[in-house]
Amino acid sequence: MSKPLRRVVLVEDHDLFRAGVRAGLEATVEVVGEAASVADAVPLIKELDPDVVLLDVHLPDGGGQAVIVQVAPERPGVKFLALSVSDAAEDVIGVIRAGARGYVTKAISGGELTEAVHRIADGDAVFSPRLAGFVLDAFRSGDTASTDPELDQLTAREREVLQLIARGYRYKEIAGRLHLSARTVESHVSSVLRKLQLSSRHEITRWAAERRLI
Amino acid sequence: MNAGPLRLPVALPRVSRTERDRVVAGICAGVGEALAVDPTLVRLTFGFLAFASGAGIVAYLGAWALLPAPGAATPPRGRRIAGTVLLAWSAILALRGLGLADSLVWPLALVAAGVAVGTGAASLGLGVRRAQAVALVLLVAGVVLFVSQNTSGRASTFVAPGAVAVALLLVVGPWAWRLTRERDAEHAERVRTEERADLAARVHDSVLQTLTLIQKDPGDARRLARRQERELRAWLYPDREPTAEGTLAGAVESAAAEIEELHGVRVEVVRTGDAPLDERTQALVLAAREAMGNAARHAGVEEVSVFLDAGDAGISVYVRDRGAGFDPNAVAADRRGVAESVRGRMERVGGTARIVSAPGEGTEVELKLS
Q1: With contact defined as beta carbons under 8 Å apart, do B363 and B321 qualify?
Q2: Alpha-carbon span A175 to A161, nearest angstrom
């Protein structure tokens, strides 16, 4: 199955790291533009209208969130994948709640990053094992601010999928283990992402409130 | 100690005459604007003071002379001095008009003038030292006058020391206040300097040392860089990467760090929840460590994933690699021994160990305590 060529804008303030990402990405992903700051990134993304933006969480003049907030209303088709060296929960939660479709750490290999770009471009969500662990923590039983239990809890199946991601399994492997189609696994992950963005659970809203994101 | 100009400890609002709401010269409206009160109230105050021997009228004239016209800079020095004198005169008139005795009003006027000269030296165009000298003379004169005028009665013997104290407070107060603020600023600066020194020392001891080591022996770069990364993370995000001994999560993280050190592979730990360390969880950590070591030695991979899930239902640890894998039913005796030692540790504390593997499929070791 051949993959369509995906156009990507890379927003990252570290030159060496940008070069590394460019070199690591496979041929099915084309880097059409690069920016090192929020101020440069916003007009560039609006102009190029790429499929996916690879976005550093920490930028000198704001952060990944600032880029998403300024671009998303005008370019709803552009999808964001957050990249960071930080595993701090507030970074993860902040950028996901701002609208990123996934979060991976910078230690990710070029091949995995390429795969993640395709997945994001297809409208799916990308969770690193660490993000999965964090989400499980945040949705641990008890302590609901519950106005909407639908959003504030994970289903047993979603929990199972997240645990497997945390254990280091890939989507295809998870599908095999749970006797599901890969499509179904992806829809579970997307549903978790939606809950993460919209839930009013204490653990999540607290971080969001501290960062003045809501 | 440096003798800077004395300043009033509070920032006075900037008052100027205004065009808006103006009736005569825009003074009441200007004062009202600066103090954020209804100008009518200011007008009433001036009107009321006019009955105190005409103090309100004198005050109005003084303010007219002193306050800058709308949009203009400060008026010339002559006008400022005239305005100040008029305002002072109006204050004296007002106090007398309101029924205060001369023996109180004049000393008060002198003291007030002293304070005004001392704190307003710059705007009156006087040198700092001269202003301080003039202020001191005025204050002393005021206190002496007050004491001499009030020593006939009995009550005055109590008032006199009070008057001196008030005068001293007026002189020393603003200066002491400023001194305290400067000391606070110095303290904050010292704390910042110490923090910077601490940061420099840490970077030197850790990052710079590691970079030097890597330049000497590039072959070891990966292991050194990874160790450095761990240390730096533990320092930057102390709550995310617990190196705290005494908890299960902390012990699993340290075990992972040891395996990384020994074998030069990445061991990525993801965790949800935590539990205290006791005999059983310690056995769990040792079993997990052994599983990590096996993966690092035999799987032929660069990364091993560890997932710790400590919840109400029990504690699980998963150690997974995507390496060579093996057929659990047909392993060599030594490998079986390793598997048994993982299993044995778990079973002795009432837990379970399950090993899932197939050639080419990687290996996962699942350890559970309920």
Answers
A1: yes
A2: 9
The span from the CA of B109 to the CA of B106, in Å, is: 5
d(CA B311, CA B324): 32
The residue type of A149 is P
Residue B257 makes CB contacts below 8 A (sequence gap 6+) with B227, B230, B267
- Look at residue B205 in the predicted model and tell me its pLDDT: 73
Distances (CA, A) of B153 to B8, B108, B149, B150, B330: 35, 19, 9, 6, 115
User: Of B46, B149, B48, which is closest to residue B101 (Cα–Cα)?
Assistant: B149
Q: Which residues of B touch A111 (CB under 8 A)?
A: none
CB A132 within 8 A of CB A165: yes
Chain A residues with CB under 8 Å of a chain B CB are 86-89, 107, 129-130, 132-134, 136-137, 140-141, 163, 166-169
Residue B144 amino acid letter: V
Q: How far from A163 is each of A89, B229, B275, B363, CA to CA, in Å?
A: 18, 26, 18, 17
> Any idea what DSSP says for residue B4?
P
Which residues, 6 or more positions from A70, have their beta carbon under 8 angstroms from its beta carbon? A38, A42
What is the pLDDT confidence band of residue A209, given thresholds at 50, 70 and 90? Answer: low
Burial of A170 (0-12, 13-18, 19+ CB in 10 A): middle
B146 has a chain A CB within 8 A of its CB = no
Q: What is the pLDDT of residues A47-71, one digit of tens each?
A: 999 999 999 888 877 778 889 988 9
Distance CA B273, CA B216 (A): 41
CA distance B162 to chain A (A): 52
Residue B63 contacts residue B31 (beta carbons within 8 Å) = yes
**Rounded Cα–Cα distance for residues B187 and B202 (Å):** 23
Q: What sections of chain B are H helices per DSSP?
A: 27-35, 39-50, 55-66, 77-97, 102-119, 121-124, 128-149, 156-203, 209-216, 221-236, 248-263, 279-298, 333-348
The phi, psi pair for A72, rounded to 5°, reads -55, -45
Return the closest-CA partner of residue B352 out of B332, B366, B338, B339. Answer: B366
Best of A57, A143, A160, A167 to disrupt the B interface by mutation (most B CBs within 10 Å)? A167
Query: In degrees to the nearest 10, what's the CA dihedral of B129, B133, B134, B139?
Result: 140
What is the β-pairing status of strands A6-11 and A52-56? Answer: parallel
The token pair at B292 is: 């990590």
Distance from CA of A175 to the nearest CA of B (A): 15
Q: Are B318 and A165 in contact (CB under 8 A)?
A: no
Strand partners, B232: none
> Using CA atoms in the order B295, B301, B307, B308, what is the torsion angle rounded to 10 degrees?
40
DSSP 3-state of B271: strand
pTM for the model stands at: 0.59
* CA atoms of B286 and B281, how far apart (whole Å): 9
Query: B364, A167: Cβ pair inside 8 Å?
Result: yes
Q: Which amino acid is at A126?
A: V
What are the pLDDT digits (tens) for B90-121? 877 777 776 667 777 777 777 777 777 777 66
